[in-house]
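<goal> How does this chain fold?
<body> The protein record starts here
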Amino acid sequence: MQTISYIGIGILGLFVFFILNKKHKQLNDYILALLNGLLALFLFFNVWVAESINAINFILQGIINLALIPVFLLYGLLSVAPKQVIRKQWWWIIADTLAFTAFIIIDFTLLTEYTPQKLEELYRTPPLIYHIFYKGHFLFVIVALLWFLKKINKYQQQIKSQYSFIDPIQLDWLKWVTQIYLANHSLSLVIFLLYNFNILFSNNIEIVYNILNGSIVIATFYTSYRGIKHYTAAELYQAQDKSVINNHKEEFQQEILTEKEEEKPLEKYQTSSLSDEVMQQLHQRLITLLEEERIYLEPKLQLQEVAQQLDVTTHVLSQTINTLSQKTFYHLINGYRVAHLKKMLQDKGQKQFTILALGLDSGFNSKASLNRIFKQYTGQTPREYQKTQVIQESLNP
């Protein structure tokens, strides 16, 4: 097991190296490097405690373990909201870590004199107060991760209301990692309760413990890999129109600051002063832009660009789209792109062109987004759809 731990430490060290050598680093990059560094230290102290437990390695292992999820959440929050909001409103994610850390330090320095034998007992069979802190920590983490999943969902909805191409900035991968952490801590809580009450795992708790730790390490590997790729792509996207991204961040920050309850699409604009007549007129102007000027052919079309053409605010335009089209900006624009591509695939005069070329001409930005979005709307990939058209033509010459 030590060999596996040292391999994990080495890989985490490589991720730290790659992250710190990345160009144009942002705060979230340093937080990601910190997460990898802390996990490497945690693995190191695990090996050390297994060989020879003492007060220093016991305390440091415990504190680092407590800090892992708050650091991950801080990294995640920096990915979905401005750092100013995090500093002001989301400090509570470290409250549990600070409380447990303070208790451990007070216990070791003022309350109890721990001999190696007592430390071994504390590690294997902790007293009630430690059980309360341990189980409370698991519950706190579970609640915090569920809360963060809600934030990711809000972010995913927000970018779909602003952009027609979201591949560089979407966070499905971060949602998946968060779910892994959530499953890990939920399972850990159940397993250790069963172990504490001598129901299960009395003889093989170390194996289970190592498997759980291993899943965290693998999830962190994946987070680091995707985190590096995500922010490289996002920086390229932001560089094209920084003002639009900044506008999005300001709007998203305002949404977070209000912390309103989740609202249904038609209920969220009930207090708006925008009349139905004005909304209908604006919607018709938007449809004209889409059908006559075919603005959806611009691969990275953004809500603010369309709002500027229509001389309205992004909020008014978003309200109009959501209310009358019953869609987000993302789904509206990509729906037109799919319809345009379907016509081109049916056109015999376009058969000399590849599907990718036709897709790019229809406003899609990449082969991956083309296939994914087209299948979401039609239930078929572009190639499957094209084959279906060929069969229909042969049956109806």
Remarks:
- Residues 205-240 form the longest helix (36 residues).
- The radius of gyration is 26 Å.
- The chain is about 75% helix and 0% strand.
- The domain at 276-395 is CATH 1.10.10.60 (Arc Repressor Mutant, subunit A).
